[in-house]
Specification:
With 91 residues, the chain is mostly helical. The chain has 2 domains: 41 residues; 42 residues. The protein is built from 5 helices and no strands. Helix 3 crosses helix 4. The longest helix is centred in the first third of the chain and has 30 residues. The radius of gyration is 17 Å and the shape is extended.
Length: 91
């Protein structure tokens, strides 16, 4: 069985891999900043709120309000499907 990458044209595959690499690099930087803020005493919920605000304002600047509103409208279902669950929540 072949995966999706194997079936893509080489140029598309390379572009996708570069995009993933860039996204992973960005995520590493965000995690480092998050860890530094925690050490400085910033509460995790405050960091999350600030990062969401920064991310949404950047996306609106790049794609416009309507496109971002549509993207965000899909988040509840994606959250419910577990796309953003990194670990098992215990309540």
């Amino acid at each position: 069985m072949t995966n999706l990458l194997d079936r893509m044209p080489v140029d598309d595959r390379e572009a996708l891999l570069k995009e993933r690499e860039a996204r992973n690099t960005a995520l590493r930087h965000i995690i480092e900043a998050w860890d530094e803020a925690l050490v400085a005493g910033v509460h995790p919920e405050q960091m999350a709120s600030a990062m969401l605000y920064a991310a949404i304002t950047e996306l609106v600047g790049a794609h416009g309000e309507e496109a971002v509103a549509e993207m965000i409208a899909s988040l509840p279902e994606r959250i419910r499907r577990g796309e953003y669950t990194l670990y098992e929540q215990r309540h």
